[in-house]
Amino acid sequence: MFSAMNPIILGPGEPVVYQPVSGGGPSGNPVTLSAIRRDRAAGESGPIGNFEEIDIDPTLLPNPPAKGDWVTAWGLQYTVTTTRQPDPYGLTIVTLLQRAGPAV
Length: 104
Description:
By secondary structure, the chain is an all-beta fold. The protein has one domain. Helix content is 0%, strand content 41%. It has strands at residues 14-19, 21-22, 25-26, 31-37, 51-56, 70-73, 76-84, 92-98. A hairpin with a 2-residue loop joins β2 (21-22) and β3 (25-26). The model is unreliable at 1-11 (pLDDT under 50).
């Protein structure tokens, strides 16, 4: 039985680029890390959605993930909208909203 506490994992970790943002622009160096992509609601069907949720290891980032940071994955760029406390494995759940325009 799967629930929000037990996400359906769509395969092993996938590489993403996490870019901290400050004042509307990049702050520091981007970090490439492995993210676990969570299953989306039925309304967001298809291989890539406007909203995505990923689990990441926050210890791999220079600062904790924050609203407004950028994530580049699957050839698209997303903005972090919310972060939730680490799951039982220490991973932080990050909700992403697809940005308009090409990946930067």
